[in-house]
Amino acid sequence: SVDCSFSRGVCDWKQDADDDFDWNPADRDRGEGYYMAVPAFVGHKKDMGRLKLLLTDLKPKSSYCLIFSYRLAGERVGKLRVFLANKKTAPVWEQNKGKDERWRTGKIEIFQGAETTNSITFESERGKGKTGEIGVDNVVLTSGLCPED
């Protein structure tokens, strides 16, 4: 498995230059390392911020599981979506509000076919709210199918 978390991960993360705002590091509550976040007050409603994970070593015709922690804290904070590079149009995962401010786990299966997925994009869309944040942390890529809960 490949650890792509932000504090000590080995992965290549890039801010998208064509979006409206950047994701920024935020300190974890317990003080160990940081996660990436977009505060609710950044930008204007419907603005987008994209953080891209560049994947260079995925083998074609294998399957992978992307596991990550995410949090949508605050009322009307916006949306978090995940896109795979070879499926440009529709997100493979989307969440638009949290029941509470807790961190949750997202899982996405990536099936490699003729085309290899060479990047994964986390996209934050600004909502109406002015408080809270959208956060992503502990991004890990493992080979094989996602484990059942």
Secondary structure topology:
Elements: E1 2-3, E2 12-15, E3 24-27, E4 34-39, E5 48-54, E6 63-73, E7 78-84, E8 93-95, E9 104-111, E10 119-126, E11 133-143
Antiparallel strand pairs: 1-11, 2-5, 3-4, 4-11, 5-10, 6-9, 6-11, 7-8, 7-10
CA gyration radius, whole angstroms: 15 Å
The helix content is under 10%
Q: What's the helix count? A: 0
Sequence of secondary-structure elements: EEEEEEEEEEE
Mean pLDDT: 88
Instruction: Give the overall shape, derived from the CA principal axes.
Output: globular
**First-residue to last-residue Cα separation:** 18 Å
Structural class: mainly beta
What is the number of E strands? 11
Largest sheet properties: 6 strands, antiparallel
Notes on the protein architecture:
By secondary structure, this protein is mainly beta. 28% of the residues are buried. The mean pLDDT is 88. The protein contains no helices and eleven strands. It has strands spanning 2-3, 12-15, 24-27, 34-39, 48-54, 63-73, 78-84, 93-95, 104-111, 119-126, 133-143. Residues 2-148 form the MAM domain. This is Epidermal growth factor-like protein 6.
